[in-house]
Amino acid sequence: MSLTLALAQINTKLGDVPANLEKHLALAREARQNGADLLLFPELSLTGYVLQDLVPAVASYNEADSPTFRALLDASHDLDLVVGFVDEDPRRRFYIASAYLSRGEIVHVHHKVYLPTYGLFDESRFFAPGQSVRAFDTRFGRAGMLICEDFWHASPPYLLWQDGADLLLLSSASPGRGLSADPKLASSAWVEHINRAYASLFTVFVAHANRVGFEDGLNFWGGSTVFDPDGRLLVQAPYFEEALTLCELDLNQLHRTRARLPLLRDERPEMLQSELERIIHGN
Amino acid sequence: MEIDLSIHPDLVRQILTKFIRSEITRAGFQRAVVNLSGGLDSAVSCFLAAEALGPQNVLALRLPYKTSSPDSLEHAQMVIDQTGVQARTISITDMADPFIALEPDMSPVRKGNIMARLRMIVAYDQSEAFRGLVVGTGNKTEILLGYTTLYGDSACAINPLGDLYKTQVRQLARALGVPEAIIAKPPSADLWAGQTDEGELGFTYAEVDKLLYLLVDQRYRPEECVQAGFDEKFVRAVLERVRRNQFKRVLPPIAKLSNRTVGYDFLYPRDWGT
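Structure tokens for the assembled complex are given below, as produced in the milestone run.
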């Protein structure tokens, strides 16, 4: 079985949801015409990243009934979509969120669990943290979504792996930083390094859609990638340029890799649990 | 101890030209104005702007005062010729001198500040006439040291060079093809004859860039910098300069009175809606 995955490495208009929606719909059409089954957008792809006090103005409340999501859900009859947005919950808290849309349904919503609030980041000032990391079933197998800082921590990808995800769908609006004589920014090198590591350690597919463009002096570096369960780079979008990048995933690679390397079979989450119990609770 | 300030110039060039294009076009403009002093920083800003926007969309201004070094004009002309940007030369002598004449015994620093601020006035006036935004030329070293005239040479719409130390700007200049005469000469604000940055500051960029890199980028404590081989007095003097000039790096504080105040809890990105 194979899956044609498309990475929508886009720039966004900061705080302008209708303009960004138009771009999503255009790319969904283009990806479909090129044979894509699933299209992955970056973090906050419908809103832009440096939102600050724009957060309440761009948030989606009861999104299934919003005109924005109605248009995206219509498009999801042609191909599955992962979109980034600001979710406003029934108690009126705001989250950085990703939604998996398929055949007119919202299959799953992930709220960003780790909100970086250090250095150039100020997310906890404006957003509530998500409370769960869950895998979910798609028509291509079980998958999981994480947003940027979520996968700078090792535990969320691990949890998704243990929850059955064979496809990690990662999105980010990663500000480029870190100069050296190297032709790659330190932030790009780091993200590529860990994504390859997750693919290798968990023997899963890892797809990452990152943004491009600038907001208030921050550059978003793009370079979206797909790694296979052997940790091989299947495709990489260009740095700093908008791109729609397609990649065919041979899902039978899971069979071959795990026959060779049964890390999933041999993993011992019960031991992890008991040791964490001891570490956290001292028992 | 090896302190490496190397950059990959092509990577930096790519980011900065895209930055200039993005920030100018999203503000509704196509064009830029650069005050070309004849020195390294403004040459690099001009090369980047020309590459980002096309040379016909960049206006380089040469704004000499009567005491300006003839080399400055000549070096600025080399940049204009090489990049093919539009250019104007406007002397600020007739603007500055009547003002300076009002105040006998004016210090060189005051005169220098007047020149820097007159150049700002001319740049902003030309930016309106040319329908372009002023692209700044301040580098990370001078921003951290506060070696700049507030509302003078520091005034700009966007600043592509502000996160590059002087020694890194020099690396970028070489990759851009800035004439070697400009790269090699001692940096100077050229506000009075014989002035050089390093003479006035009392240390070299090569030294202070390494120290600032440890203190700022690598988060070394002052005593760790001394252990790494820097003179303690030098470390203290630089830190004090950085502290004393913090006011130049922030907007003036607004006295908070209401529930929602610009800068404190009215927080919107500059690129709002674009």
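Chain B touches chain A through 23 residues (CB under 8 Å). Strands of chain B lie at 31-35, 58-62, 86-89, 132-134. Further analysis is deferred to the final report.
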